[in-house]
Amino acid sequence: MIPDGEFGQLKLKDLVTHSSRNVTPDTLWDVEDFDVSDDGRYIAYVVNDDGRSRLTVLDTLGRLELAPAGLPEGRIGNLRFDRTGRRLAMSAESPVAPRDAYVYDIEHGRLERWTRSEAGPIDVGTFVTPQLVHYPTWDRVGRHARMLSAYVYRPRTAGPHPVVILIHGGPESQYRPGWDPLLQFMVNELGYAVVAPNVRGSSGYGKSFLALDNGPLREDAVRDVGSLLVWIGLQPQLDRDRVVAMGASYGGYLALATLITYGERLRGGIDFMGISNFVSFLRNTSGYRRDLRRTEYGDERDNGTRVFLDRISPLTNAGRIRKPLLVAAGANDPRVPVSESEQLVWRVRAAGGEVWYLLAKDEGHGFRKKANRDAYLETVATFLQRLR
User: Fold this and answer.
1) Do 161 and 239 touch, CB atoms closer than 8 A?
2) In this structure, how many other beta carbons lie within 10 angstroms of the beta carbon of residue 146?
3) Torsion angle of alpha carbons 288, 292, 297, 298, nearest 10°?
4) Residue from 63, 67, 22, 70 nearest 44 by CA
5) Do residues 317 and 346 touch, judged by C-beta distance below 8 A?
6) Which residues is 92 bridged to in the sheet?
7) Is 4 helix (H, G, I), strand (E, B) or coil?
8) What pTM did the predictor assign?
9) 327 neighbors 259 (Cβ within 8 angstroms)
10) Which domains does the chain have, with CATH numbers?
11) Catalytic residue numbers?
12) pLDDT for 118-170, tens place per residue?
């Protein structure tokens, strides 16, 4: 896979002549996985189509493109041909189906599910499939408003519903619909609609889009969330007066920045291991990733950059957080040190703000242990019920 131009494409290179040609057609999406049968007849590849995976099997002999029917509409990966080159194994999941193994018999056009992952006591039949929407943001591309994508999960009950804006981390990542019981719990049990946007700086939309939030453009991504709040206000089934911003890691920063910038439009915020000050974050994150993060956020050793990063950091503006805030973190986080959460909690409380703080002393970046995950789920549920 070669990032030729804006998107990653699949190319075939002749090692003798050094010439190359495209295997995949020109598309506005990245090729994210592929495999080739041993005899070279079949090439299977997956395209990330606005967050959803799309599988194609190319028959190079018959010049046919095959698209297996019946796969979950979500994420597909781990492509592997068997030794005969006539069967293709893969994993697939969706918001209503956990990850399972599937095998596609190419010659007979038959898809078989090989595993049946258990969901425990959860009634998967109550899970909802999201709707992909596009909303206009604050700037323009040419003569038209830039459009951003978001996945919207709506409760089956009558609205208008309170809303959780679920902001992904990264920032070079992307919200992609997949198996997420916590999200479905918020929708089915708490009655919240969940809106998961892909603001500028997200992956999956080309290299230029990925760079739209770099360095001094950081606050432009916050403005994208502001544009989403405008869109939410125009939807009759969404309650514009009951909106909560929620995010983890870099998404935690965006949730905090949204709470500061658009606090009058929010009911509260949830920050899970988020960045509260870019300067202290860059100084204290693990050394192996510090230069990589400087490329994204800016080099805090430069005086002008340091002043800018400090100005836009939630810690500097913590006194403007006037709505309830839930902060959760792991004490052993090597990526976003726990000090990022603790200094924010202290600053908001000192300014008279309301903060709930959940600290897991035996966790790192994210909660892995069941007891901690359960405690986090219970805390989030109680907090969101309080804000309804």
Assistant:
1) yes
2) 18
3) 90
4) 67
5) no
6) 76, 100
7) coil
8) 0.93
9) no
10) 11-113 (2.120.10.30), 124-387 (3.40.50.1820)
11) 249, 333, 365
12) 888 888 889 999 999 999 999 999 899 999 999 999 999 988 999 999 999 98
